[in-house]
Backbone:
């Protein structure tokens, strides 16, 4: 499967406008999700893991009990690609937001 | 931790009356949960796994894509105990039902 | 993605010969995996879940504490296909066998 | 369950000496685990999640594909406690190290 090229800043800005809750930090799409407890947070991570493995595109993420903080970019493209926006959108849906 | 004794049939019937959606089959509390897809089913299983491990009481369960069929009894008590009702109640809540 | 056709009995027999530990029961490839405890069993299931979701081909499976019993066939092909042998092989590897 | 008190620096040093692979950084026990791929890393996280939930003591951790970076301390004790050493030891074992 051909990997997508990185998006230019204008494209990123346009797409971010349609993705409320996500912000651009240090070249990555970022968001912190907050859940009721660890169990709900880890269950969310499991669903995301299944989706990410299927896309062959994985998040950089951190978990502290009920919080999951995500950074998305595409290492081998050297920036943000459509894969990151797709995963961000999937994560938003899986979090019920 | 002392393990509970098995409940007698009258107690089981009373408790089942307060647990809609579950039925008694061959000495076990049974229910089939249906989800949207495999991902949602497996995510539910992950939450239940965390709760079960914490209780040190685990379900007998089967998964076929979006369905999770559960049988609960307490092997070492030779019947249904309060642990089964507690796990059934937890599973019901975690399934959002 | 085009889904594969079901294999004929001779092909199944040949392929089963190369897959020690698996047996043919009621039209499905079957195996029971035994682990040390629930945690190891569920962790195995998580790895299989990731692989299955990626293949878009999922096992019928049952878990009782440290045991995972698997039945593989391809519902929409009405029999056993190469996908089942691929998943069986993956599960064997992931179980460290 | 009574929560343990934080350990003093001498105790931490003594215990760290028996826990090769872990280091002390900014008041936390730290280690990066490297796996073959995302699937193996996430499966490790699932086992740790089960153990952590059972202990009611959870790691601060970050995952980047095949790497899991862990920071352990006990927020409500304001430092490192025996729970952190217990979880560190469990994680080491579950990683097969």
Residues:
């Amino acid at each position: 499967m051909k990997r997508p090229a990185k998006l230019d800043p204008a494209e990123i800005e346009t797409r971010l406008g349609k993705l409320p809750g996500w912000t651009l930090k240090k070249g990555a799409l970022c968001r912190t999700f907050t859940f009721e407890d660890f169990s709900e947070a880890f269950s969310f991570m499991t669903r995301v893991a299944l989706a990410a493995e299927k896309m062959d595109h994985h998040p950089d993420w951190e978990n502290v009990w009920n919080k999951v903080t995500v950074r998305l970019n595409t290492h081998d493209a050297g920036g943000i690609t459509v894969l990151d926006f797709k995963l961000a959108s999937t994560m938003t849906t899986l979090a019920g937001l």
About this structure: The mean pLDDT of chain A is 96.
